[in-house]
Design brief:
By secondary structure, the protein is mainly beta. A hairpin with a 2-residue loop joins strand 10 and strand 11. The longest helix has 17 residues. The two termini are about 50 Å apart.
Length: about 300
């Protein structure tokens, strides 16, 4: 009799493994978990496991979500607070091993897990990712030449030499590859790069470097960068000079987060443009975690 019961249990287990599982969104507690996500929003929501991806369509429309954990470099994270929604008892996604796990919330058949990367800034805006929305132009006194021809993954300046463009690239800086935005200045003119609707957080960071080949030029000129931030009726300016030489020059300035996004404008000039192979990076970041997540 006992052997028969064991065989029946094994058969039921095998059948359960083969039978299709109920969709995640159809399980009891899914609505409650969605309400919790609205009350305590995360930077990113992951539906787990990936086989439950159909539940993405049932999540609140304003949530940024996917069926996979976004892979990001430490120190350049857009998503510090990640929420994972899945069936009760699901295993943690292995990609989140480096994040601090908060106590889970159970909603009947659904479980909500939250992970936070403590102490790391959350990137709100990255110039390299905003190429498609940038406005680029060359200013020569009152004459303005729009650089609006797509090319190199960014924008070319029609009628100008091929090196006169703005686009993502990688420069060799002190022997290492540095991902950045190519922004070769032109003597006697101003290269203007403008980004609109930029979210501000706690600080804005500007980094600039010359390629190793340019840095080793004996008569290389400096490059001046003027950073303007317009938000509402206010305007703030910051200046940076990238002198001749190797390495990355980085400056950070505090910003005041506001309800309205900002317009951020870079003006780049140099007295002599020979071999001014300049790369720049511009980011805004916040150290606040989205939502009132409690340990």
């Amino acid at each position: 009799m006992a052997l028969a019961l064991l065989s029946l249990a094994a058969l039921q287990g095998s059948l359960a493994a083969w039978l299709p599982q109920r969709p995640l969104a159809a399980r009891s507690g899914f609505t409650g978990a969605c309400d919790a996500l609205r009350a305590e929003p995360a930077d990113f929501v992951v539906v787990w496991p990936p086989t439950a991806a159909a539940a993405l369509a049932a999540l609140p429309a304003d949530l940024r979500a996917a069926d996979a954990v976004p892979l990001e470099l430490p120190g350049r994270r857009r998503y510090r607070h990640i929420a994972v929604i899945g069936p009760a008892g699901f295993a943690d996604p292995p990609e989140l091993q480096g994040a601090a796990a908060r106590p889970r919330q159970l909603f009947d058949e659904i479980e909500l897990a939250r992970f936070v990367y403590d102490g790391q800034p959350r990137i709100l805006f990255d110039l390299r990712d905003a190429m498609g929305t940038l406005r680029v132009a060359m200013h020569n006194g009152a004459a303005v030449t729009p650089c609006d021809a797509p090319g190199e993954g960014g924008w070319r300046c029609p009628g100008r030499p091929p090196w006169n463009h703005v686009a993502p690239t990688e420069l060799r800086v002190q022997g290492r590859s540095w991902p950045c935005v190519w922004a070769h200045p032109v003597a006697g003119q101003t290269l203007v790069i403008e980004a609109r609707e930029v979210p501000l957080g706690d600080e804005i960071e500007l980094a600039a470097a010359l390629s190793d080949g340019a840095a080793n030029q004996p008569d290389g000129a400096w490059v001046d960068l003027l950073l303007e931030i317009e938000q509402g009726d206010g305007r703030v300016q910051h200046r940076m000079r990238r002198p001749q030489g190797a390495g990355i020059v980085t400056q950070r300035w505090p910003t005041l987060p506001g309800a309205s996004p900002a317009t951020v404008r870079l003006q780049i000039t140099t007295p002599r443009d020979a071999m001014r192979h300049l790369g720049i990076n511009l980011t805004t970041s916040s150290r606040r975690v989205a939502g009132p997540v409690q340990p």
